[in-house]
C-alpha cells in the first residue's frame, strides 16, 4: 500500500482534495484503515473498468469474427463496376461527323461510334440514332441509296424512329443516285436544307432532331461527274433533354418495365416503342390440349440480325402451345442488340464467343447451342432447333405434338422438320399431310437427344474443317439411311434476305414463294402411316390408285396435268441408278421448285401437288416403285442444258442456303 | 459499530471484485476457447418472444411463396432433425392443431428451404410482394455451371441463393438445379464486392460453403406447428445425404488449356472408345448404386476427369475405387448379371483385392479395393505370372461428388494429391506408354504371394 500512487485517471482537482484528506487523516489513527478502504474502492473501480473493457473487447472481437467469417463467402473475383456512360451527367454533346469518298466516321464526345473505311463496302447514307437524354447510340444503319429501293427502306426506318431522337447522317462514296424525292422530302422535313439538292458524288453530313431543330449540316458538291466532292467534317453541339422527356409514360407493370429498358436503348422496332398504344410483347396464345412438346426445349440459333430475331420471336411466342420457359436464344457473338430483343420478350439468352470463320463458325455455334440446350434441360429427350430468320406457323407446336411420338418410337427416323423444300405456293396443298423424305431440310426441326449425344456430338466437325453443319448432317455417314418427317405445307417460313449464304436474288428465287401454313389447329391425318413399314403400304396404295399421265406431253407444260382437283397422278422419269438425278433436276427447274440439289425424295419418289392434284414422280428403274410403271410407258428423259459459266457457282450456293 | 460495518463492507467489496475478476477471466477464456463465437445467439437467444418470432417469419414466408405458387420444401437440418424424431407421428396425423410450437420455434438464426429452379418462372413480383410484407431480401447470383464445360458460352447469371430477412429471423432459400446425370445441384454462396456482409451471419448458413449434389428427393406434405410444409419423405436419409453432399466442379478452364497444349484425339477410334467407356461407366455405376456400394473414379479415369474433364482415349479401361469396408460378396454376381463377366480376381478381401470385368470390345472395368491405415490409404496389385505383390500408397482422402460423362459420381475431394500420388508431379503431360508395375510414383514392392495361395489370389478367366 505504501507504493500506492494516485490513479492517473482520476481528475486533478479530486486528486488534490484526496491528497489533502489523506494528509489530514494520516494524523488520525484510523488513517491506515481509511487507506485500505480507499484502496479497495479503487481496486473495485479498476476491476469494473477492466470488466467493461473486456466486454467491449470481446464484442468487437465477435464482430470481427463475423466479418472474417463472411469472407469465406466472398467472391474470388473482383467485380469492378464500370461507369455506365461518361456523358450521363452532361447537358451538351459534341458531335463530329465526317463524310468522304472512302471514309466516314462519327464521334460523340470524343468516342468514335462509327468508323468505316473499308474498301468497296458501306456505300451510301449512314444513319445513326442517338438517345436525346443519354447520348447512347440506339441504332446504326447504312442505306445504299446508290442502288434502287434502298431509299424506301431508309424512309421506312426514319418513320419508325421516335420523335425527339437525334439523327446523324453521313454519306460514304455515293448516296444520291437512287435517292428519290420521297426520301429527299423526308430528309427535308427533318430540317436538312441540302437534302433536296443532293446530287451525284456529293459529300454530305447532317445532324438533326426528329420533329425538331437541325443542329448542323455540311455539304460539298462534286465538281465533275468523274470526281467526288471534297471531304466534309461537321462539328456541332447537341443539347440533351431530361430522361423523363425522352421516355414514354406507360403504366408501371413488369412488361412495361422491360419495354422501357428496351426502348431507351434501341431504335427501329416500330410500334413496340410507341407511346400511345404500343404493340404487345406478351401474346398468350391458346394452350394446346394434350401438348406433347410443352417440355421440349427450344433452341433459337441467332447471329447479329436483331430485327430478324424480333420478328422471329414474335411469331414463335404467338404460336399455340408455346412454352416461353423452354426457349433459349443462342447468340453467336457478344452483340448487345439481339440480347436486348431477347430480354424484351423476357426470354433467356446465351452469348457464344465466335470460334472459327464463316460456315465453320456457324457450325461451331450450332454445336455449342445444342450441347448447352441438353445441359440446361437434362430431362429432355428432344430439342426443337430454330433459326432467327424463320417465321413460325401458328400450329407449329400442334404439328410437333401430333408427330413427335414417331421420332421416339421409329428408329428409322432422323428428324422431324417443319420445312418442305419442295413446298411452294404452286406445289403444296394439304396442311394435314406428312411425308417421309431422305433429306434433312432443317429450318425448324426436332433433334433427338440420343442421336445428338451418341452420334453427332462426339464427331461434330472441328473448327478447322470449315464445314456446314447441315451439309455434314446430310452426309450418309451421319444420316445412315434414316429419314425425316416433313409436312406438305411448311410450318416455318424463311424470310431472311441478308445472311452468310443469302442474298436478295437468291431469296426471291427460292424462298419467297414458299407456302406457309396459317391455319390453326390442323388435325394431321394418318400420322401412324408415317412409320417405316406403314409408309410403304401407303405409297403402294397411292400408286395403285394413281392415274398415269400422258408421257408424250411435255411435263413442264401446264397442260401435262389435267384441269382436275383432288386426283392422284403419277409420272415416270428416267433415273438410271440411285444417284442419277439428271431428269429430276431439269423437271424441278421447269416446275420452279428447289433444283440446286436433290431434296424431298423417298426411294426415288417425289410427292408434290400440281393444280390441286397429288402429283407423284417415280424414277425408273432405280426406284423400287418402278414396278408400278405400265410397260407401255417410256420414262421421260430431260437433257441438261449445255454447261454455262454459272453452273460452277451453283454448288457453292446450294451448300449453305440455310444459314 | 461503524468500524465493524466498514470492515464488512470492505471485505464484501473485495470479495465481489475478486469474484468479478474471476468471472471475467472465465468468460474471456470461454470466449477464446470458442472462437467461432456463439456470442450473438447467446445474446439473442435469451430474449423472450424470439421463439414465436421465428414461427411467424416462417409462416409469413410460406404465405408469400404460396401466393406466388412457388413450390418450396424444407431442408433445414435443425428442424428436420427434430421432425425426424417424431416422423411416424407426423406422417400419421396430417393436419390438426398442435398444442405447442415444437419445431419452428426452436432457437436458430435461419430456416432453410429449397426451391427447384424449373418449377418457377423468375418473377420479380415475388420480391415486390416480399418487400411489402416487410421482408428484406438478398439474391446471390453466379455463372451457370451447366454452361461451364462449354467453349466460351456466357449465359445470363443464375440465382443460387435467396435470403429473406424479417425482424431477427431469416429464411435461406437454396435454389436447386437439375443437371445432366439426373441429380440436383446447388451452388456455393459467394458474396460480391458491393454486398452487405452483415446482412445475416453468413457463416452460420447450413448451405453454401460448398456447392452440393443431391438425389431428387421424394416429398411429403406435412403439417407441423400448424404450418403446412413440404419436407423430404425420409428426413434422416436426407440429413445423411447432406453431410456428404459436397460437389466439385470439373476444372473446365484447365481442361481447355490442356487441350490447347495437347489437342484432343478426334479419331474415330477415340470417339468409339469414349462412347464405350461412357456406357461401361454408366452400367458400372448403375450396378454398384443398386447394391449400395460407394465407389469413386480412380487411376486413369480419375486423371481423365481431373485433367481434361473427359475419358482419356488411350487409357483403354475404366478404373474405379471402393473402400474394402464397403466390399460385398454380391458385387461379382451383380456385374455378371449386368453382362460383365469377371476377367480376373487378384488378392483376397483381407489383402490387395482387385477385380476386373470384361466390358464390350476389349474395354475393361478395373475395380481396386482400398485399405485404410492410420496415416494413409493403399490398394494392391498382383503380377499374375510371378505372384509378385505391389502396393500403391495414397494420402488420406474424403469423397466428393462430381459430374462426369453425364453421371453423378464420387472422386477424391483432394483430387490433386490423389492424382499426384499416382502419377507424379508431371501428371499434366500425357503418357501413352504406362506400366502399372513401375510407372506409378506411389508403387512399392510388397513381397510375393505364397505359392499355396495362388489358386485363390490369382484367378484369371
TrEMBL record, chain A:
<keyword id="KW-0479">Metal-binding</keyword>
<feature type="domain" description="ILEI/PANDER">
    <location>
        <begin position="123"/>
        <end position="212"/>
    </location>
</feature>
<comment type="subunit">
    <text>Interacts with DAG1 (via O-linked mannose moiety). Interacts (via transmembrane domain) with FKTN; the interaction is direct and is required for normal location in Golgi membranes.</text>
</comment>
<keyword id="KW-0808">Transferase</keyword>
<keyword id="KW-0472">Membrane</keyword>
<keyword id="KW-0333">Golgi apparatus</keyword>
<dbReference type="InterPro" id="IPR029044">
    <property type="entry name" value="Nucleotide-diphossugar_trans"/>
</dbReference>
<dbReference type="GO" id="GO:0000139">
    <property type="term" value="C:Golgi membrane"/>
</dbReference>
<comment type="function">
    <text>Participates in O-mannosyl glycosylation by catalyzing the addition of N-acetylglucosamine to O-linked mannose on glycoproteins. Catalyzes the synthesis of the GlcNAc(beta1-2)Man(alpha1-)O-Ser/Thr moiety on alpha-dystroglycan and other O-mannosylated proteins, providing the necessary basis for the addition of further carbohydrate moieties. Is specific for alpha linked terminal mannose.</text>
</comment>
<protein>
    <recommendedName>
        <fullName>Protein O-linked-mannose beta-1,2-N-acetylglucosaminyltransferase</fullName>
        <ecNumber>2.4.1.-</ecNumber>
    </recommendedName>
</protein>
<comment type="pathway">
    <text>Protein modification; protein glycosylation.</text>
</comment>
<keyword id="KW-0812">Transmembrane</keyword>
<keyword id="KW-0735">Signal-anchor</keyword>
<comment type="similarity">
    <text>Belongs to the glycosyltransferase 13 family.</text>
</comment>
<dbReference type="Pfam" id="PF03071">
    <property type="entry name" value="GNT-I"/>
</dbReference>
<dbReference type="GO" id="GO:0047223">
    <property type="term" value="F:beta-1,3-galactosyl-O-glycosyl-glycoprotein beta-1,3-N-acetylglucosaminyltransferase activity"/>
</dbReference>
<dbReference type="InterPro" id="IPR039474">
    <property type="entry name" value="POMGNT1_PANDER-like"/>
</dbReference>
<dbReference type="InterPro" id="IPR004139">
    <property type="entry name" value="Glyco_trans_13"/>
</dbReference>
<keyword id="KW-1133">Transmembrane helix</keyword>
<keyword id="KW-0328">Glycosyltransferase</keyword>
<keyword id="KW-1015">Disulfide bond</keyword>
<dbReference type="InterPro" id="IPR039477">
    <property type="entry name" value="ILEI/PANDER_dom"/>
</dbReference>
Automatic annotation (TrEMBL), chain B:
<keyword id="KW-0812">Transmembrane</keyword>
<dbReference type="Pfam" id="PF19737">
    <property type="entry name" value="FKTN_N"/>
</dbReference>
<feature type="domain" description="LicD/FKTN/FKRP nucleotidyltransferase">
    <location>
        <begin position="292"/>
        <end position="329"/>
    </location>
</feature>
<feature type="domain" description="Ribitol-5-phosphate transferase FKTN N-terminal">
    <location>
        <begin position="1"/>
        <end position="278"/>
    </location>
</feature>
<dbReference type="Pfam" id="PF04991">
    <property type="entry name" value="LicD"/>
</dbReference>
<dbReference type="GO" id="GO:0000139">
    <property type="term" value="C:Golgi membrane"/>
</dbReference>
<keyword id="KW-0472">Membrane</keyword>
<keyword id="KW-1133">Transmembrane helix</keyword>
<dbReference type="InterPro" id="IPR007074">
    <property type="entry name" value="LicD/FKTN/FKRP_NTP_transf"/>
</dbReference>
<feature type="transmembrane region" description="Helical">
    <location>
        <begin position="7"/>
        <end position="28"/>
    </location>
</feature>
<dbReference type="InterPro" id="IPR009644">
    <property type="entry name" value="FKTN/MNN4/W02B3.4-1"/>
</dbReference>
<protein>
    <recommendedName>
        <fullName>Ribitol-5-phosphate transferase</fullName>
    </recommendedName>
</protein>
<dbReference type="InterPro" id="IPR045587">
    <property type="entry name" value="FKTN_N"/>
</dbReference>
<dbReference type="GO" id="GO:0009100">
    <property type="term" value="P:glycoprotein metabolic process"/>
</dbReference>
<comment type="similarity">
    <text>Belongs to the LicD transferase family.</text>
</comment>
